[in-house]
Amino acid sequence: MPKTPDRRPSYDELAALVVRQMATIEAQRETIAQLEATVERLTARVAELERRQGRNSGNSSLPPSSDTFVRPDKKPTAKSGRKRGRQPGAPGSGLAMVDTPDEVEDHVPAACGGCGKELSATDSVGYSRRQVRDIPLATVTVTEHRAHRCRCGGCGRLTSADMPETVAGAPSSYGPNLRALAAYLLVFQHVPVERCAQLIADVTGARVSPGWVSSILAEAATLVADGIKVIRALLTLAHVLHVDETTTRIGAGRRWLHVACTNTLTLLGLGERSRQGANSLGILPEFRGVLVHDSLSLYNGYPHARHQLCGAHLVRELTAAAEDHPGQRWPVQIRWALAELNKQAVKARESGLTEIPPERSRIYLESFHHGIAVGLSLHPRAPGRKQAPARNLLERLRDRAADVLRFADFPGWVPFTNNTGERALRPVKTQVKISGCHQSEDGAAHWLTVRSYLDSARKHGLSAFEAIHRAFTGNLWMPPRRTQRLISAYHAASQNLLIAYPRVVLGTVDRRSSDKSVFPLPGGPF
């Protein structure tokens, strides 16, 4: 039976079908656009997460302890062909004998090995020597101080003697040696309170309580307070000042602390991560020298100070940019230029030059500025305030070139990195890892005060125990008078000494500008 042909759709039916298909296509177009936007957003998010996951101590400001999943690539060291250990002809070191020992013990054979006759020291015809270095066992000795009252034979008046200043007012107390040992163990050796009490009991026999050990911090902080005042004043007048910040734990909370230091002085203190917190040290508002820091924005609020951005942080950021953009050469070029300028600055400093010779620095300065220009062309600004990390880095290098390159302007004064400030903060992290958090804000403040005193004294050649022992025995260490006189002379002279401050300008030889600033006097930074 023949098949009946289907009825052909009418014009109105076809028109309605076209309308429905157009609506479907439009809906699909909107869905595709939404999916494309979602894919773009997720792709950017994945890239950002991968970038963060790839951060380590070699390409960011993260500490080495955070290198859990990704560790920085270590460059293979070139083999020199020499064996391990001391090389032939190198000077050796050992425990040398002294000419005048503290004690001498003679050992004489009791009898002759041949006939058995008794022998004595008068029969000696020579001897062999051995010297042993040892320490005496520490034991507590109880000293009773008696302040006598004497009656005058002439007028009959009673006069009483005063107790020594190192003797506490209690009938029975621990002396300055034991108190200094407790403070030394708590602050410098990071021994926890209970373990400190146990160590003192085991070694000396003094059964001190953990509460007494804990109270030593407040006493030590009070004793060194005058020294801290001098340190704060000298840091305010310093030529170059390193500043940094980190976190510590007090109880269950996290608190920020700040450090201001030089090669010879250190000051630590609690404060918020803000300009007000940095001002709590009592140094930055009046500081007029060069401030070395990691380009944290809060340090930009000190217009009277000059700045040096930490080169180590910039090198790590450039390393991260090179890893994020492997096909671009500008991060490697800028990093190379900064490293070579630092080498030239070291050579100039060792040669006693006040600046790098222009013929040595010109090629590196041109490479630095050219790399920034190329990078900016490859990373244009995005709409809005938020920019890519590479763009932010390039704009900072461009806009703050003088602050980045100030170490090259004054190689004898301004350092390339802020390592001095970062090293001053390491004991704080060590304290948290070994002894745990501080239990109170006052306890943390006392610990930081004593640590500032000890670090400053150690930078002048004193041992930590000697410094704290002097505080407890009434002979507080102070910065040398020579340091105080030099800084005072610098502060007085700098009020009237204004010279043209060098700025790095591409294509020029003298690199001078009309910017005026106080220039430090010769003699070295404090």
Topology:
Elements: H1 11-53, E1 149-151, E2 158-160, H2 176-188, H3 193-204, H4 210-223, H5 225-236, E3 240-250, E4 253-261, E5 266-270, H6 275-279, E6 290-293, E7 306-309, H7 311-324, H8 330-350, H9 358-378, H10 389-399, H11 401-404, H12 406-409, H13 419-435, H14 441-458, H15 464-472, H16 481-494, E8 498-502, E9 512-518
Parallel strand pairs: 3-6, 6-7
Antiparallel strand pairs: 1-2, 3-4, 4-5, 8-9
Helix pairs in contact: 2-3, 2-4, 2-15, 3-4, 4-14, 5-14, 7-8, 8-9, 9-10, 14-15
Characterize the structure shown:
The longest helix is centred in the N-terminal third of the chain and has 43 residues, at 11-53. Helix 3 (193-204) packs across helix 4. The chain has a five-stranded mixed sheet with strand order 5-4-3-6-7. A two-stranded antiparallel ribbon has the order 1-2. The chain has helices at 11-53, 176-188, 193-204, 210-223, 225-236, 275-279, 311-324, 330-350, 358-378, 389-399, 401-404, 406-409, 419-435, 441-458, 464-472, 481-494, and strands spanning 149-151, 158-160, 240-250, 253-261, 266-270, 290-293, 306-309, 498-502, 512-518. Mean pLDDT is 84; it is low at 493-526. The protein is elongated. Among the domains are: 225-308 and 418-487, 2-Layer Sandwich (Nucleotidyltransferase, domain 5); 311-409, no CATH class. By secondary structure, it is α/β, with parallel strands linked by helices. Residues 172-445 form the Transposase IS66 central domain. Residues 23-93 form the DUF6444 domain. Residues 48-99 are annotated as: Disordered. InterPro entries: DUF6444 (IPR045618), Transposase-related (IPR052344), Transposase_IS66_central (IPR004291), Znf_dom_IS66 (IPR024474).
